[in-house]
Every structure is written in C-alpha cells, then in structure tokens.
Design goal:
six-stranded mixed β-sheet, globular, alpha/beta, 322 residues, Rossmann fold, four-stranded antiparallel β-sheet, 19% strand, single chain
Length: 322
C-alpha cells in the first residue's frame, strides 16, 4: 500500500497551523504593547508619494550605517536549533538562521516545507518544540502574551489574505492601528493614514471595503496598516501569490524602498525566485524540514546542491510556445 506523500503531510499540517494562528489575530478590541522609538525620518518619509519614492536614489549606505552602529554584534532576528512538529509529523528540524538589521532575508522552498511556520513562530502564534528565537537579543520562546504584544509592535506581519477588518474601509483599517498606538489627535490620524495609503499606491481606494479589493490591493493596504505601527521588522508571507506580474513588481519596489528609505528589516517568504533575486541579501532554503542552505544570494544561485538546482530550474521553466 502506498504511503501518503510527506509533502502532503506538511501542507496539511501548515493549513492546520494557519487556522490556529488566524484565531490569534488582533481584533479591534485588542490592545498592543508600548510604542517603540522610531527616527524622525519615518514621518518625513511618509509624505513621499509612490512616484517620488520610485524616483528617489536608493540610499544603500543606510545598510552600512546600520551595520556600523551595531558593529559585529547581535543580529536583530535569530533562530537557533529550531524544531517543530504537528501531530507527530516533523515540519522543521534543527533550523538555524539570522537576519542583520536593515537586511532582507528571503525564505525559499517548495510548498509545505515550513516557510510560513517560521514567521508564525516569530510572531508568537506558534511555539517551537525545541530551540531559541531571539528578537534584538531578547528570547521570545515561552514569552507571555503581554510580552509578545510588545514584540509585535516591533515585528509586524503582512499575511497572505491581508487580514484586514472586513467591516472597516481602507482608511479605517489603517486608522485603527494609529489609534491603538495613541499619541495622535484625530486630524493627525487621518493625515498620517492618508500618507501611508498614498505610499502603497492605494489612494484611489480609501473608501472601499476589503471585499471589493483585488488580492494585490489588499496586500498593499495590509502593508500600509503594518507601517502604521512603525515597526522595525516586517514579515511578508507569500506577497506575490495570486497577483499579476505588474502588482508583484510594484510590491517588490515598495519593499525595496522601505528598506532603502527607512532602513526596515524584512523577512520575505516566497517560492518566486525572480522576486527573491530582486530583494534578497541572504537566502534560507528549506527542504524536507531542513535548512539546506543559508547564506548570500549569489552563493545560493551557484550552489551545486542538486535539490537547490532542481528548485531553480523548475522556477525558470517556461512553457513552450504553440
């Protein structure tokens, strides 16, 4: 008798994990942790339109400045010897990686290998069976929900489905995060929300409700709402899934500009190699629950590992013309 494909097992396990984590998403009544300190440049940069950002010279020296400020010390995110299983089925086994401040890590691999599970552990929606996860040197495994709320002000996630509030329009979705942060009067909240919406190119949809938005537009609005918390790290879960190439390119441009203009650290889960090549400083390749590769993008592309080469060749496959 044929046994069930282990990839199918992992897909099923990830689906169960996603359903569990969805129950823990913040509702309009939830309270967030204390506001982190952010540089004044954040609010100044929000006044830039998408066109201005696209024309601006990428400020790559910001990475060097961030690295110099940190020296060779603690990375902003680190996973050490992380293992997790669902129902006795191993999803990740002894996984190690880290992300430096101001850098973009792309997590690659086939469907069902635990890419999104990594993000959910970082957000505290799932707990690993073994290992350590640190954010700015602080251990978050086993941290209380109150402690995780403070972490989620510094590390925010853009979910595949956008996770927008269906009963609120676009502007109100972004305003909600600003109101929860506190310290602003209503006029300032409206002004800042409109800047954020303009930043992601959704200014023609401020009064629209999520049900009327395309998948790509929902993702853009979700990014705007995430930015309202002024985070230091943004996690993107399959941002190009079910969007057309034009929207995917626009989202990629936005993620790049947030890095160059605001110094954001990003972790991007994707199976889209072309998207990853545009964004990645470092790559984590997951295969059958293991971290098969972790390192710079150029070394990943030239890796002799047959599973990596198969992944790259399948991603590059183009259907023959008629």
């Amino acid at each position: 008798m044929d046994s069930q494909d282990p990839i199918d097992d992992r897909k099923e396990a990830e689906a169960e994990a996603e359903a569990d984590s969805a129950e823990k998403l913040p509702s309009p009544g939830d309270k967030l942790g204390p506001e982190p300190d952010r540089p004044e440049e954040f609010n100044l940069a929000l006044s830039m339109t998408m066109a201005e950002i696209a024309e601006a010279e990428p400020q790559k020296p910001i990475e060097a400045k961030a690295a110099a400020a940190m020296g060779e010390g603690e990375p902003i995110i680190s996973f050490k010897n992380i293992s997790i299983s669902f129902g006795g089925r191993p999803i990740l086994q002894n996984v190690n990686f880290h992300v430096a401040k101001g850098q973009t890590l792309c997590i690659l691999g086939r469907s069902g290998v635990g890419k999104s599970v990594s993000l959910r552990m970082l957000m505290g929606f799932l707990q690993p069976d073994e290992g350590s996860i640190r954010v700015e040197g602080k251990e978050i495994v086993g941290l209380s929900e109150e402690g995780m709320q403070a972490i989620r002000k510094r590390v925010t996630m853009v979910f595949q489905n956008g996770a927008l509030f269906d009963s609120l329009n676009v502007r109100e979705n972004v305003c909600f995060a600003l109101r929860e942060r506190g310290g602003l009067d209503e006029d300032q909240i409206i002004e800042l929300s409109d800047r954020l919406i303009n930043l992601v190119g959704a200014d023609d949809s401020v009064d629209a409700f999520p049900a009327s938005l395309s998948t790509g537009r929902k993702r853009a609005v979700s990014i705007a709402r995430a930015l309202a918390a002024q985070p230091e790290v943004v996690l993107y879960d399959e941002p190009t899934t079910m969007v057309d190439p034009l929207i995917a390119r626009r989202l990629g441009n936005l993620i790049q500009r947030l890095k160059y203009q605001l110094g954001f650290t990003s972790i991007v889960v994707t199976h889209d190699m072309r998207f990853a090549e545009r964004l990645a400083d470092t790559v984590l390749f997951l295969h059958q629950g293991e971290a098969r590769f972790f390192g710079p993008l150029d070394k990943f592309l030239s890796s002799p590992d047959p599973d990596i080469q198969q992944f790259l060749s399948l991603d590059a496959y183009v259907l023959p013309s008629a």
